[in-house]
Specification:
It is a single chain. This protein has 13 helices and nine strands. It is of the alpha/beta class. The protein has one domain: TIM Barrel. The protein has a seven-stranded parallel β-sheet with strand order 3-4-5-6-7-8-9. The protein has a two-stranded antiparallel sheet with strand order 1-2. β7, α9 and β8 form a beta-alpha-beta unit. α4 crosses α5, α4 packs parallel to α12 and α8 packs parallel to α9. It is globular.
């Protein structure tokens, strides 16, 4: 390996494995060094033992690159066996090193289901709570946020996002004020299904947000052209929703055997391979697949382990998945 490449590899390993927070480089430098752990032989060795993490650009805090969504899967109402199944998913999530759990008032009973699980597990200290405000009447935003907090049973949220840009001009200043007052750690904005990207881009350029949430996967790649590079330039963390197209992508892929070369990336399941493609994009901070099954949760969390794809391997993954669905 040439000297310059070796130095770049060692720098990338240090960025992804050290939890201490030395003086931060520029935001662009921070995102650039977080490409993947799998760069050459040294990267593959490091990736085999260290779970993949990403740095939040605005603070330097590290997060595991796979989180847990709750859309549909945790909307179980008062079905006690289903709620208990969700407890086991959350238990397995933390056992696998997870931190970020994401929800919204839009998601039916998902919030109280999360709160039930957290209470049963004695509120794991590793939790990174990501919630949303989703209401057209801006004056009712604080009451909705407080109701969400009570459902979760947390003293405060780590991240609050304006969900699907709804009334963002009114909600966002309030969230920024909460952060300034110490009642919130991070502020973000979200969209999904590739909608309203032009407006989302304008917000990213003009507002001091910490996080943006958007849809990105090997088939839905529109964000690669403008939004992901802009997030890197502006130092905005990126949460990826709908990584499996609400399961449709995995159901289509299930008709095909996993390619033999997936073993080179330590992938035994399509879900792991898809997530490794997503979370090794240098601008992505965390993907949030949703599931109600522990076995599927473990397949998702396996994306944090083992060898990670480089840029050429990421393109191969996307190309081969597109050919199968």
């Amino acid at each position: 390996m040439r000297g310059a490449a070796l130095r770049a590899t060692v720098a990338g390993m240090a960025e992804s494995t050290l939890l201490a927070q030395p003086p931060l480089p520029s935001r662009r430098q921070c995102l650039t060094t977080l490409t993947t752990l799998a760069v050459g032989g040294l990267g593959a060795t490091a990736a085999a033992s260290v779970p993949l993490q990403r740095r939040i650009p605005s603070s330097g805090e590290m997060l595991p690159a796979v989180g847990l969504g709750s859309w549909i899967t945790f909307n179980v109402g008062q079905d006690l066996p289903a709620r208990d199944a969700c407890v086991e998913v959350v238990r397995a999530f933390f056992a696998a090193g997870g931190r970020m759990i994401d929800s919204s008032p839009m998601y039916g009973s998902s919030q109280p289901t999360i709160g039930h699980a957290l209470a049963r597990l004695a509120h794991p200290p590793a939790l990174f709570s990501a919630e949303k405000v989703w209401i057209g009447e801006a004056a009712q935003g604080p009451a909705q946020i407080e109701a969400s907090r009570r459902h979760w049973g947390v003293p405060r949220f780590d991240l609050l996002q304006v969900h699907n840009l709804w009334a963002w001009q009114a909600h966002l200043p309030r969230l920024l004020a909460m952060k300034a007052e110490g009642r919130l750690r991070y502020v973000g904005i979200s969209t999904s299904e590739g909608r309203r990207h032009a407006e989302l881009e304008q917000i990213m350029r003009s507002q001091p947000i910490d996080f943006v949430q958007l849809t990105y996967n090997p088939l839905d790649r529109e964000a690669e052209s403008r939004l992901l590079p802009l997030a890197a330039d502006r130092g905005i963390a990126v949460i990826v929703n709908r990584p499996f197209r609400e399961g449709h992508l995995l159901r289509a892929l299930a008709r095909h055997p996993l390619p033999a070369w997936a073993a080179e990336l330590d992938c035994a399941h399509w879900a792991t391979l898809v997530l490794k493609h997503i979370v090794t994009h240098p601008a992505v901070t965390c993907a949030i697949p949703a599931t109600s099954q522990v076995a599927h949760l473990r397949q998702n969390m396996a994306a944090l382990q083992g060898r990670q794809p480089d840029a050429a391997q990421r393109e191969r993954i996307a190309r081969e998945i597109a050919a199968r669905v």
